[in-house]
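Researcher: Quick test of sequence recovery. Tokens follow.
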């Protein structure tokens, strides 16, 4: 991880995205303690500006890491909270059931109360091959999954999302590019601006 952070720093990147983690065993609290200890051991040795960006999970490997409450709590319990930020993955958020596509305004308010948005550093913009709450982490091209244009339009209009870099992790189109998906995202963003 220190090597990844050094690469991110050398490239001028905001940070390195890491999945929240999987908690094994019978004691979930021990899993969280282990995660915090790992973060602290790693970040104690890191002196650069690039951050570790915790990414929310879809729930396909258990309950850990699906909620903004968990992400905020883990960050606050670390000895190095200023070295930790968040990456919000839209497919994961949808698949976990934390966002059903129609309740974005509620999720925005929830994130604001938690101060989640203050530490959001990146968005992974992905459609979902499976419905909300399926807990299946399978990205779909933008516009070809279950999230839908109206839900993406609302999400993309949010200042909380627009102020950070947005990266697509979707399957490429037949020509190997993402041109049509990028054009679709730009169109969705401009429709909200009208």
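Model:
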């Amino acid at each position: 991880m220190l090597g990844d952070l050094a690469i991110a720093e050398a490239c001028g990147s905001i940070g390195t995205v890491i999945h929240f983690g999987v908690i094994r065993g019978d004691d979930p609290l021990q899993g969280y303690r282990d995660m915090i200890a790992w973060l602290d051991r790693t970040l104690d040795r890191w002196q650069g500006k690039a951050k570790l960006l915790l990414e929310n999970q879809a729930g396909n490997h258990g309950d850990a890491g699906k909620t903004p409450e968990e992400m905020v709590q883990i960050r606050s319990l670390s000895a190095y909270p200023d070295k930790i930020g968040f990456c919000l993955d839209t497919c994961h958020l949808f698949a976990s059931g934390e966002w059903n596509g129609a309740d974005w305004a509620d999720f925005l308010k929830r994130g604001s109360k938690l101060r989640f948005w203050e530490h959001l550093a990146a968005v992974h913009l992905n459609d979902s091959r499976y419905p909300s709450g399926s807990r299946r982490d399978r990205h779909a091209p933008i516009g070809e999954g279950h999230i839908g244009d109206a839900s993406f339009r609302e999400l993309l209009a949010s200042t909380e999302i627009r102020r950070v870099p947005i990266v697509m992790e979707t399957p490429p189109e037949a020509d190997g590019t993402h041109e049509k998906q990028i054009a679709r995202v730009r169109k969705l963003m401009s429709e909200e601006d009208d």
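The helical segments are 2-11, 28-44, 68-77, 90-96, 104-114, 149-156, 159-162, 179-193.
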